[in-house]
Amino acid sequence: MTRLPTTFRALPARALALRMLGYLAGCLVFATGASLFIHSELGSDPLDVLALGLKEHIPLTIGLAQALIALVCIAIWSAWNRRRPVVAPFVTFFLCGSMIDLLLLADLSWLADTAALGVGVLLCAYGSALIIMSGIGIRAMDLVVITLVRRWGWPFWLGKAGIEAVLLATGWVLGGPVGVGTVCFLVFVDGLIQPFMALNRRALGMHNHGLDEPAPAAAPQGAA
Length: 224
Fold this sequence. Notes:
Elements: H1 6-9, H2 13-40, H3 46-55, H4 62-81, H5 88-103, H6 113-134, H7 140-152, H8 156-174, H9 180-204, H10 218-221
């Protein structure tokens, strides 16, 4: 049996269960929002622009493409922080990507494109907030953003937008779909994550294990 990391073994079972529930809920909520972005055909979120762009040249599913992107982000985070590569963020990319693959099989022809985009914005932002606040399996891209926040003092939204602008530009060059939805993601999703985290703290009493703790990836490190 795989032993829990020291950080998790010190937690009461209820606290660990609540953090895990928040993490899994965040993955599902985010994946649902991302699939709605794709369904709207008004432009995907930057990560999926890159994933879909890679699919144009390599026979990959969205889940596998996102896992490949996660490897690159984890390598950057590991080198920057001089720490061993973590595994849980890779799992999150693969899990969310695989959920998107499944959700895209649903018939959403009854849902208007603009409605899908609007709901997708809210779900992606709130799902991201839940994953970060859980401190479990924080997405590899967000680990890089959190490092930017701590080392350079950037606002979270600015670091997030900057990283995703790089993903967007690369995906567009590879042929990924870019449109008004992509702009909405950069402006509204990246801008809403931090307010949603603050709302969860005030309204639900949730602790932000991702941004508040000194080492947000300490727990995922032992989740291999």
